Amino acid sequence: MHDIRAIRENPEAFDAALARRGLASLAGELLAVDEQRRAAITRAEGAQAEQNRASKEVGAAKARGDEGEFERLRALVAEKKAEVAAMRGEADAADARLQAMLAEIPNLPLAEVPEGADEADNVEVRRWGSPRNIETPREHFDIPAVQGGLDLPLAAKLSGARFMVLRASVARLHRALAQFMLDLHGGSHGLTEVWAPVLVRDEAMFGTGQLPKFAEDSYQTTNGWWLVPTSEVSITNFAAGEIYEAGDLPIRMVAHSQCFRSEAGSAGKDTTGILRQHQFEKVEMVTLCTPDQALAEHERMTGCAEAVLQALGLPYRVVVLCTGDMGFGAQKTHDIEVWLPGQGKYREISSVSTCGTFQARRMNARFRPEGGGKPEFIATLNGSGLAVGRTLIAVLENGQEADGSVSLPEVLAPYLGGAGQISAEGALV
RNA sequence: GGAGAGGUGCCGGAGUGGUCGAACGGGGCGGUCUCGAAAACCGUUGUGGGGGUGACCCCACCCAGGGUUCGAAUCCCUGUCUCUCCGCCA
Question: Is A368 a catalytic residue?
């Protein structure tokens, strides 16, 4: 959510930033509505002040038994009251229009974000590791070791397309990955592990920016709760309405949750395998900090996500998203793409964004600056650390051997009863 | 799901129609006293919005939204959250 006062002070800069995102100018329209709104407020408050004055005098007139004055003031109050109601109505309507417009405008890219139209214009920042030389790489669902452990037809029977059933070694590996990530982030990375609801109210979805514009992308229960598309929604909204002390920031959290996405519009992409699911698990990092800490925290969080891939020995690259490819709430985003031998491509496995004060403004999340003073909006960041299902794919595909087995990263052994491999027959050994 | 009790400022807690943005206590901050500290005493202490170059002025907010009234923290309705008991349940 943007600050209308900032737009008022520098409409040209606002429109220029929108243009970088490929959007048309909006400042003129916004300021016109803002003008109407403020004019109506001024008139409403003027009338209200008069009404308040008259109201006070009514009591006094009554007390001294001045019936004539009493009746006159009463009539005056009634008149002002009607005037106030009319003006307030105008002000509220203008305000609602303004809020509705602002609520659908995406965050603006930082100056350092490369300009571009889509994915193709993202800029690679660095690479880590190099892909193994695999003779005839298979996609995860074709690897012999995985055959008994991944049952897509069964999932289809239960739920339809884009769901999965995992069994035995693969189910356990999936769980092991999530546990490993949580332990790593909660341990040496110093994040606080949290657990939060995945069913949330409208307000929470608005706060992080899923509503009002992207209602179609999420599922809603019959009684109105939303199933979160990422626990970023639940966790970032911890801050809603809060005023933190500057000294308490940054607050760094990590959670593991189910995520639900209806993926409207993506039909036809990645239809085989488990890359794109309606329900999946993700380990998510969220940081609440002051705006001037945000960029350093963004790098730190990216590093936390990379550490998971490094520990698992999975080759990846980090790209900075261009202006045209960034999400609604982001000011700057790093995507981390892991090497998938089966596709012979780097594919997104994590997305780390700083939202600046954009979400904080939507959810009224503030902090009191060092040494006191007026509360200011905090900055919020979120990043996957990592998407568990996609990590499963990456581990399986990168570890696949010519004999049909899969070699597993050593760091997972403690979570797998010491196993280091899934045999071609699907057993953990 | 049923029955009941409640939601007041940083915290505790008054306040059931009239000048209450809110008594009182605690906490915080500033000061007096002191070599310093404690104690004591004095003062101060919210958020949002509108207007003005400015000193400053105005409006709103006692969970939220409606309503009654000349006037509501106080009365009515709805929602919401918390607590207690019953039922159900992992």
Answer: no
Q: Domains in chain A, start-ordered, CATH in brackets?
A: 4-103 (1.10.287.40), 119-422 (3.30.930.10)
Nucleotides in B strand less than 7 A from protein CB: 18-19, 47-51, 58-60, 70-71
> Distance (Å, rounded) from C-alpha A383 to C-alpha A306?
11
Annotated catalytic residue: which of A162, A172, A366, A390? A390
The whole-number Å distance from A196's CA to B81's C1' is 18
Decide if A261 is catalytic.
Answer: yes
Active site annotation includes A126: no
Helix H segments across A64-150? 67-103
Q: What is the amino acid identity at position A384?
A: S
CA/C1' separation A222–B85 (Å): 30
> Smallest Cα–C1' distance to nucleotide B59: which residue has it?
A45
Q: Is the dihedral of CA A54, A57, A63, A64 positive or negative?
A: negative
ipTM of the complex: 0.81
Cα A256 to Cα A178: distance, rounded to the nearest angstrom: 7
Q: Which of A167, A276, A317, A368 is catalytic?
A: A276
pLDDT tens digits, chain A, 429 residues: what are they? Answer: 899 988 998 899 999 999 999 999 999 999 999 999 998 888 888 888 888 777 777 766 666 666 777 777 777 777 888 888 888 888 888 888 898 899 999 999 999 999 999 999 999 999 999 999 999 999 999 999 999 999 999 999 999 989 999 999 999 999 999 999 999 999 999 999 999 999 998 889 999 999 889 999 999 988 888 999 999 999 999 998 888 888 888 999 999 999 999 876 566 778 888 999 999 999 999 999 999 999 999 999 999 999 999 999 999 999 999 999 999 999 999 999 999 999 999 999 999 999 999 999 998 888 888 766 778 899 999 999 999 999 999 999 999 999 999 999 999 999 999 999 999 999 999
One DSSP character per residue, A371-400 reads T--S-EE-EEEEEEEEEHHHHHHHHHHHHB
Closest nt to A5 (CA→C1')? B49
A188 annotated active-site: no
